[in-house]
Amino acid sequence: KAGVTQTPRYLIKTRGQQVTLSCSPISGHRSVSWYQQTPGQGLQFLFEYFSETQRNKGNFPGRFSGRQFSNSRSEMNVSTLELGDSALYLCASSRRLNTGELFFGEGSRLTVL
Amino acid sequence: GENVEQHPSTLSVQEGDSAVIKCTYSDSASNYFPWYKQELGKGPQLIIDIRSNVGEKKDQRIAVTLNKTAKHFSLHITETQPEDSAVYFCAASEVTGGGNKLTFGTGTQLKVEL
Q: pLDDT digit string (tens) for A69-93?
């Protein structure tokens, strides 16, 4: 059974640009969550989607947005990139809501210059 | 909101020894406590979890204990091996009404020396 797939794995952008990251959950999983991982702040929750609806949102500015498609695949977008957005962006999937069991992908490493 | 503290930040043990990592949480409504292992260049991997209606859970060399009254939980790894070297994260969540949002601790870098 394939795990959570994230693309691209690595990318470099410059300040002011925007970026879109993609996540394909484990087959049969309907919940997709996104986390930002940095050395200084650790793992921080961005948002969670289930059945194409955002169910939870973390404490990030509106430049961070996401969506989920009918096939459960998800994308997140960061607009007007700042240097501080450099991080590992992790996607996690879960079979359903209210289980807590998250299965993470290997992440997309974003560097903002 | 929930706050999770994790200690120690680094832990070095000899192969075959035991390792213990401790976490405390602040929200008494939290009822799900997973532990993740993250190897270099990879995403976190769920290794064991415990729910609030259980005090202890064991899976081979790994065990987790939960003290709801004191709001702390611990990861115990026995007979450590070099492949146990990684960063370990604890997390807490209130899953009955809060979706799947996890609040993570700051991580423990475990090094198992030969």
A: 999 999 999 999 999 999 999 999 9
